[in-house]
Amino acid sequence: YLREDLQEFLDGEVLLYQLDDLTRVNPVTLETVLRCLQARYMADRFYTNAGCTLVALNPFKPIPQLYSPELMREYHAAPQPQKLKPHVFTVGEQTYRNVKSLIEPVNQSIVVSGESGAGKTWTSRCLMKFYAVVAASPASWETHKIAERIEQRILNSNPVMEAFGNACTLRNNNSSRFGKFIQLQLNRAQQMTGAAVQTYLLEKTRVACQASSERNFHIFYQICKGASEDERLQWHLPEGAAFSWLPNPERSLEEDCFEVTREAMLHLGIDTPTQNNIFKVLAGLLHLGNIQFAASEDEAQPCQPMDDAKCSVRTASLLLGLPEDVLLETVQIRTIRAGRQQQVFRKPCPRAECDTRRDCLAKLIYARLFDWLVSVINSSICADTDSWTTFIGLLDVYGFESFPDNSLEQLCINYANEKLQQHFVAHYLRAQQEEYAVEGLEWSFVNYQDNQACLDLIEGSPISICSLINEECRLNRPSSAAQLQTRIETALAGSPCLGHNKLSREPSFIVVHYAGPVRYHTAGLVEKNKDPVPPELTRLLQQSQDPLLMGLFPTNPKEKTQEEPSGQSRNPVLTVVSKFKASLEQLLQVLHSTTPHYIRCIKPNSQGQAQTFVQEEVINTGPKLISHQNFVERYKLLRRLRPHTSSGPHSPYTAKGLPEWCPHSEEAMLEPLIQDILHTLPVLTQAAATPGDSAEAMPAPMHCGRTKVFITDSMLELLECGRAQVLEQCARCIQGGWRRHRHREQARQRRAAMLIQAAIRSWLTRKHIQRLHAAATVIKHAWQKWRIRMAYLAAKELDGVEEKHFSQAPCSLSTSPLQTRFLEAIIRLWPLGLVLANTAMGVSSFQRKLVVWACLHLPRGSPSSYSVQTAQQDQAGVTSIRALPQGSIKFHCRKSPLRYADICPEPSPYSVTGFNQILLERHRLIHM
Length: 928
Ligand SMILES: Nc1ncnc2c1ncn2[C@@H]1O[C@H](COP(=O)(O)OP(=O)(O)OP(=O)(O)O)[C@@H](O)[C@H]1O
Known about the structure:
alpha+beta; three-stranded antiparallel β-sheet; binds adenosine-5'-triphosphate
């Protein structure tokens, strides 16, 4: 049985991995979905459909054949790519065909989401390669060449952006530290003519501050490892030099490919001198990081760099094209403008502030450099507005984040995820509504997990977390972390998504996101939101003689930047949150104007990732769509719960639920079964209801469409409960039956065993008795022989006596006939007397004598004496009988020649006991 069970189980697993769509697992629960994904992952099937979403599992191993140009062409040429195995190319092709179909909205977007390391960047890259192959122009050689150039440029933007925007983190060796939206622009013939990149929230703090075991942006390592001797000299990067902003340089990653970055930059139109300029500035930043200040004893005096840092100041200023003393002074001394005349006050900064200003300078340069690079890439790949008509957008954003210590960055990321979640749910509902319409159902009952309350808490008007943080920045007043916490808690107390961890000593607040609660620390939140850049730092950089920095920090900027003092300005302060919110809204506007497609990347072999997957899996919170076939297969056993009395369609579910069935179809065959299942629902609902509940208080929404059954979570739970109940009943029934069967079997076996035992015993007994018979026969024959012999001897003896007797009185005693008969009787009977006299038991010697006497009927008182003697001395038995003169007889016995003839056979150790023993005993007794 176990074998069969095991086989069945394994067969089940085999089927599970064959399921290409997670909505086909039966039933769609978190557990079954995870099991299906796991089975597919183990079978090297990394893509699975989940309704309108594609789930991509990170294989963590190179699979070149999965992304080959041949496979791309296969998906592109397939009449129905959705019939092929799920793949990122299916989404790519579907999107491409949607653009071709010109059905509104023509523009498409692909939202690639997932946590860090799940494969978002990889997936976006794959899609870009796919479009570079399928959307290439096959026209003339010239246009083909141009198209190739564009496609190549678009592809080349990846290594450049990854070198400057990606870093090795604890969770991913090539983690994108920014979000991006790439717009692939297509002309009327659906050929890729250009692209545009929009980036979000670069993690610029990484330039000056890296968590332990993490690294700075890849580009710093690339220049340190890949520079030539000459370049090393130019950039002051001697081999083995130590930089405090370059942790873990010994780790070599495949991303540390300087040549690839240079090559790609070249293709994007960044020539070698410009590249060298960029790398020189980056080397300058590394030297800037080595400037360590010593604390000043006199507050009025600026902190001086430590001895070994002095040369770093010199090198940094040289590389950044800045006067050494001005650089140092700007970092050491704060200038304050006050009063009506805007008088300038100079205040030496304490050591910590010097460090902050130094870091700020580096972040400012790097962020501008990154933005500039993006703009260069855009100008290189962007097509003229009139040369493209449609686009496909690829959005690769950070996944939901929850760390022990969450701050403004996480708030922004999770806010973006909430927005995208809302967008997804809206799209999902739309898709479901369409499906309901196809199934001929009214859209009435669905109660989705709505995250609007959470969004209201974060960005709502007039008061929200964002507005409160922004207000703190605008008021420009000193505010403590605890004050901010209290303000948020009191102002937003009514929000169901705001929580507070009373056990936490650090000031914080909790936001209950759709993916789970996250605690944000309020310390430093306002400062981070302000992202203040001291204006003297910008002015310093405007003095730079370096061509690149001169371009990045022009002296007469066209637009007023946030770095300008804004204390008296009436314009709203441009905080990090407000800028992010604006760009997010812009992005969502773009997304709303497109047909969205979703790819959810999952990191399968890490514990934390499963949770993210679980929490974000919207399909588990919406109604389940189960095909009639699957529904019947799983729940037909519920019919056992049906009350036997119910015969008609009394179920409230049937009346409004089931549509009219078309005869002869497969669906029609399933109808009676579904009807039967529906009849059990009132029973189930009643069983689940607590005594106080009325029937109406237990609605269990369930709708049957033409091909699918729509059930909510609560209904699914109810059905599963009923199923478990029936299975339990069945199990009990099977157990009872099995026990009865086993009992009967055992009784039968016992009877059979007894029969066999009895047969064997009787056979053994028969054998034994046969042996005894044989022995008895031998004894009998021996005895008979002996008796005859004795008779003969006795006769012979008596003949002698008689002759003697008659010869003594021949004339006076003539033998009468009576005498003759008497003698005959004596001769005939005496051996019996002898036997009795020889028996071992029960007869005393006197009795024996009497018996013998009686047998022989010897004439008492006869004067003559009798003597019987055997001639052979070796014969057993009576050797002589003598009649004594007094009339008594003396027997002289010898032992029987049959040695144990008079001994009862002992029971043998092999002999049987019990009934047969009794038989044997009886037999023995009889025999004796
Ligand atoms: N389809 C795939 N085939 C092979 N390897 C993959 C695939 N997808 C991801 N990987 C591997 O996983 C690593 C992480 O993937 P990726 O950088 O795309 O993650 P991410 O989701 O963009 O992470 P982050 O948010 O940190 O940027 C890649 O460097 C690659 O080695």
